[in-house]
Amino acid sequence: MESVDLSYGRSFANGFPHEFFSHLRREAPVWWHAPTEYTPGGEGFWVVSRYNDVVDVFKDAETFSSELGGTQIFDGRGAGYQLNQTDDPKHRRLRDLVNTGFLPRMIGRLEAQLRERTRHILDGISPEEPFDFVPTVARELPLQAICIILGIPQEDREELGHIVDLAIGAGTGEALALEHIKRLGAYADRIVEQKRREPADDILSVIVHAQLEDGSPQLDNRELRAFFALLLPAGAETTRSSIAGGLVALIENPHELERLRSDPGLMKSAVEEIVRWTSPSVYKRRTTTRDIELRGQRIRQGQKVTIWEMSANRDEDEFVDPFRFDIGRSPNFHIGFGLGTHFCLGANLARLEIRVVFEELLARYADFEIVGDLEWTNNNRLVGLTRLPLRVPPRAAS
Ligand code: HEM
């Protein structure tokens, strides 16, 4: 089978290359991706595609470091101080400091606000008139949610969302993307300073003032800036892909849509299936701290190892009929939110957002119709829809 350049964003322009990964899982589960003209640093990397192997790599953070080069194919700029690009014990300290803001109790408090937001967004949609679901709904709610969490004033939110879009659209690791990320950093400095002076009832204020009982210092400015530059895209981009991709999956599987409508008790497992199905955070990279052997392949110390959650979440050895979208799937040990010490900090928030959006969509509309071509991000790390033209007939009176 012809190989796909996984370091090239355009290889993902029609969605995830599932066929190629099914082939890798079967024939070359630990595959050496030779460098191409698009591969950062001209350095090849390993591609791990089977569920069990991806789980093993996630769990063994001592051998597979996030700190040595970050979590993407190119070396991350935040390596060594941005939460997701640190190893324990440094990672633990950072994580403990920000964790308070993401406890279920804190996230639960947001539900009423998010539901109101969602209703407000849906109020703006005219039944029968085609609109693009991605910017109107899927992008909007996660952006608002993360901005509420960070206590960002309403008038700044659209611009920040726009910067995040530009950074993602510019392609991973590109100089232009880094310029946009710097703009986020500059904004972070201003808002952190403000929360330091005038703490408010938001999670960013909690994080800025967080202090551990063991006496570790509070987060410094660089750590706070890095955390902000991580949280905004992490919160705004991934959940959007699950919401948009989840709706497409329900439309393309009308039986599942009806099943969910008639049994709202299935919402919890539907949310998990949507995350498995869409796996918006597609791969992670680690760097080996020692020579090892994985499925007979010798991996040398200091090499890049990529683990593909999307592929793992379609592994036929772990999931019964993995290419079937099944809102009642049980068991469903998907790893869409990662695993181990770096398990997604925002998982509870993402689950809440997805649930609220689908509850509101189902309550309001009897049907959903796709009325044009879908478009995808040119990005190998955050695969998701950028365009979903939709029409919603009004709900039939019941
Ligand atoms: C469907 C939506 C989401 C998906 C699929 C997702 C996926 C992931 C994955 C796979 C990781 C593991 C990273 C690694 O091992 O290197 C992760 C980490 C993380 N996520 Fe999410 N995420 C989602 C939503 C969110 C949201 C809404 C937020 C923000 C509030 C968020 C914040 C983070 C942070 C801060 C980390 C780093 C945690 C650490 O390194 O300890 N995520 N996410």
The gist of it:
With 398 residues, the chain is α+β, with helices and mostly antiparallel strands. It has 15 helices and 12 strands. It has a single domain (9-391), classed as Cytochrome P450 (Cytochrome p450, Orthogonal Bundle), CATH 1.10.630.10.
Structure write-up:
The protein has a single domain (9-391), classed as Cytochrome P450 (Cytochrome p450), CATH 1.10.630.10. It is globular and about 60 Å long. It has a 5-stranded mixed β-sheet with strand order 1-2-8-5-3. The chain is an alpha+beta fold and 398 residues long. The mean pLDDT is 91. It contains 15 helices and 12 strands. The protein binds protoporphyrin IX containing FE (HEM). Protoporphyrin IX containing FE (HEM) binds at residues 66, 71, 83-84, 95, 146, 230-231, 234-235, 238-239, 242, 275, 280-281, 284, 309, 336-338, 342, 344-346, 349-350.
What topology emerges from the helices and strands here?
Blueprint: H1 18-27, E1 30-33, E2 45-48, H2 51-59, E3 64-65, H3 90-99, H4 104-108, H5 111-123, E4 131-132, H6 133-138, H7 140-150, H8 154-169, H9 175-197, H10 203-208, H11 221-252, H12 254-262, H13 267-278, E5 283-288, E6 292-294, E7 297-299, E8 304-308, H14 309-312, H15 347-364, E9 369-370, E10 375-376, E11 385-387, E12 389-391
Helix pairs in contact: 5-7, 5-15, 7-11, 8-9, 8-11, 9-11, 11-13, 11-15, 13-15
The site of protoporphyrin IX containing FE has 27 residues, from helix 11 and helix 15.
